C-alpha cells in the first residue's frame, strides 16, 4: 500500500470511529435520552419465546383495574400481585386515555400447587393482552412472576394515560 492509501484509510477509520462513539453530539443530550426512552418503551426484556404484536392499543387505570387470581394460590403469588399493582400504576392519579378500549382485569391462573423454585421449575406462561379482560396462564407461581414482569413492561404510563401496544402469547 502506498503512503497515500494508508493516509486515506486512517482518515476513514478515524471519521467512522468518531461518528460512532459519540452519537449524542449531533443532538442535545436531552433529545438523545428521549430518543432512547421512546425506543425501549413497551419493549420486553427478557424476550418471550414467542409473541404476536396485535397492533392494538389499550388503556387502563388503577381505579378500574384489578388482578383476579384463580387456581392455586400462595403467599408468593399474593405478594407479587400487590407489588406489581404498584409497578404497573406508579402514579394512580393518571386518567385513562380517551377513546381506547380499556383493560379492567388481568385474570391470573396458576395450575400447580406452590413448590420452591429449583432448576426444574416451569417458568413458562401465556399472556394475552386484550380488553376488557387480559389473561395470564401458567403452570407455576414462578411463571406468574415472569408473566407479570412482561405485563408491567408492555403497559407504560404516558401523560395522557397508561397504554399497552402489544399482545404476547
From TrEMBL:
Endpoints of the signal sequence: 1-18
Keywords for this protein: Hydrolase, Signal
GO molecular function list: beta-N-acetylhexosaminidase activity
Alphabetized SUPFAM superfamilies for the sequence: beta-N-acetylhexosaminidase-like domain
GO biological process, one term: ganglioside catabolic process
GO CC entries: lysosome; membrane
Domain Beta-hexosaminidase eukaryotic type N-terminal residue range list: 44-153
The keyword Signal is annotated on this UniProt entry: yes
Name the record gives this protein: Beta-hexosaminidase eukaryotic type N-terminal domain-containing protein
Taxonomic source organism: Desmophyllum pertusum
